[in-house]
Design goal:
The protein is α+β, with helices and mostly antiparallel strands. The chain has helices at 14-23, 51-54, 57-61, 107-116, 127-142, 150-163, 210-215, 254-259, 271-289, 306-316, 339-349, 373-384, 422-429, 439-446, 460-463, 473-483, 485-493; strands at 2-8, 31-38, 41-48, 67-73, 88-90, 96-104, 166-174, 178-183, 192-198, 201-207, 219-223, 228-233, 238-242, 265-266, 269-270, 297-300, 319-320, 324-326, 350-352, 361-366, 389-394, 433-436. Helix 5 crosses helix 6 (150-163).
Length: 506
């Protein structure tokens, strides 16, 4: 999972790009990068770490220009080497840089085609570099001279859609021309754009989430449609075109469950309101399965589940309270390598307020259960704090299948619900009762019972139905081998290869 942003401004954009990355930091805490264009020259700073640690005053001074793109990442493909941080750059044609959120499901095939047919070399294991080279090759094929117009770009994006499969929301920049953004034909990963009146003239911005627009005083225009490309040119013009032959609005439902900030709007759906509706749906099932008389207090697992937990407690007319204090300097545990590290991290990340647990029947509410490691530790922490009985509710259904479109979930065998019944999961995490959200209720909660333009949600992590229709058993088996903890640890022990290209000002 990653966050992308692109800005064409009337003045310097380095500060705005940095501020946008801070707002999108929840989408990627592994690495950050900014690339700007000034008088036809590109300037880059990227490295592993949080945005606040990657950039200092001198780095910002070295990022001049009124146009730029930026990126925060989790390593969903490849490894966590700083060589794979984004944006990426290729010299031909025009000098193009690109940042990408998502995952190409036919990356291996594309990599071979780029080498054998397109004569392009890939320096990293990142599918984002593959996407960049596919776009660059198709743009080169569309332009026979040094001139470039929007029709060339739109035709190139159309070819990208024909060649690339999977989920992708990308921002690209061409020096002297503008910023280009495009979204896969299923709209799996989010992308939105907006405008503002800067001190020196109009400015345009595209980002993974609308909250980045809000905090920088951009007015949200709309989401980029699935399959659509938009061009923000240096002369202040906006060009848009649908570039896919067929498309559908099928956003990843896990964005609403977990990843997106609650103050964001994705495909005209308010994330906060979606989570409120999740809580109401979950409350009805909780009362049906467990009965509200058994619950003394509802306690959320910080932070994403808080909205759903409050809604659930209100619906059940049961007291809601905060029972855990979160250390915000510990990363997400389901992405950390190794079970031992995850268990230790949970204890470092959360500390119970004993008085809220002692002698009570507690209903803990979380947004989802992925590996189960965090849930198991939290249940035990509640018992250690004196809870009489500990029930657990998940605002999402059982996560039984891997995500293939850009969320770095574990291998299927490492998902606690994979191959287990709900009763077995309940026993494994040590709870006295477990309530999962029903998938139909989740879809109705997020989709407002069909009142949105969304045609279907990608709910593949829950039902194994992948909207692109190209995911085979063999693909999932390769993914299993690539994503398990041992494979990740082995990749990260390897020395990163040298990347030849644009100077990275460290």
């Amino acid at each position: 999972m990653c966050g992308v942003v692109g800005i064409v401004g009337a003045g310097l954009v380095n500060q705005s790009l940095y501020d946008a990355l801070l707002v999108l930091q929840h989408r990627g805490q592994d690495a950050a990068g900014i690339m700007t264009s000034h008088n036809g020259k590109l300037h880059l700073r990227k490295d592993n770490g949080l945005a606040r640690d990657v950039f200092d005053n001198q780095h910002m001074i070295n990022l001049p220009g009124n146009m730029g793109i930026a990126h925060v990442r989790y390593p969903t493909a490849g490894c966590s080497s700083s060589a794979e941080s984004q944006p990426f750059y290729v010299n031909s044609p025009y000098g193009i840089c690109l940042a990408h959120n998502g995952n190409l499901t036919n990356a291996d095939e594309l990599k071979q085609d780029l080498f054998r047919e397109d004569r392009r070399h890939i320096n990293t294991d990142s599918d984002s570099e593959i996407l960049l080279n596919v776009f660059a090759h198709e743009l080169h094929a569309e332009t026979s001279n040094l001139s470039l117009d929007e029709n060339d770009v739109f035709r190139a994006v159309s070819r990208v859609h024909k060649r690339c499969r999977g989920g992708y929301a990308a921002v690209a920049m061409i020096p002297g021309y503008g910023v280009i953004a495009f979204r896969d034909p299923n709209g799996i990963r989010p992308l939105v754009f907006g405008v503002r009146n800067g001190g020196d003239g109009p400015e345009m911005m595209v980002a993974s989430e609308s909250v980045a627009l809000d905090t920088l005083d951009f007015d949200r225009v709309r989401d980029v449609d699935p399959g659509e490309a938009i061009i923000l040119t240096l002369d202040g013009k906006l060009h848009t075109r649908q570039c896919a032959e067929t498309w559908q609005r099928s956003p990843c439902i896990f964005e609403f469950v977990y990843f997106a900030r609650p103050d964001s709007i994705i495909d005209d759906i308010f994330v906060h309101k979606a989570r409120l509706r999740m809580g109401k749906k979950l409350a009805k099932k909780t009362e049906r399965v467990l009965g509200k008389d058994k619950i003394d207090v509802v306690i959320p697992i910080p932070d994403t589940s808080r909205t759903s937990a409050m809604s659930l407690a209100h619906e059940l007319d049961v007291r809601f309270t905060e029972g855990f204090i979160k250390n915000r300097y510990i990363g997400r545990t389901f992405i950390m390598p190794g079970q031992t590290a995850r268990r230790k991290s949970v204890r470092q990340k959360l500390n119970p307020i004993d008085v809220e647990f002692k002698g009570k029947n507690v209903l803990l509410v979380d947004d989802s259960i992925v590996r189960g490691t965090t849930s198991r530790e939290i249940v035990q922490m509640a018992r250690d704090a004196g809870a009489r009985r500990v029930y657990f509710a998940s605002a999402a259904p059982p996560v039984r299948y891997p995500n293939v479109y850009g969320i770095d979930m574990p291998a299927a065998s490492e998902l606690i619900a994979h191959g287990r019944t709900e009763e077995e999961v309940c026993a494994w995490i040590g709870a006295d009762g477990l309530i999962y959200q029903d998938l139909e209720d989740l879809i109705n909660a997020v989709g407002k019972k069909g009142k949105t333009a969304v045609q279907r949600f990608d709910a593949s992590v829950f039902n194994g139905e992948y909207v692109t229709g190209d995911i085979t058993k063999e693909y999932l088996e390769r993914l299993e081998c690539d994503r398990n903890d041992d494979a990740k640890a082995s990749r990260n022990r390897q020395r990163p290869a040298t990347v030849i290209g644009l100077h990275n000002d460290r």
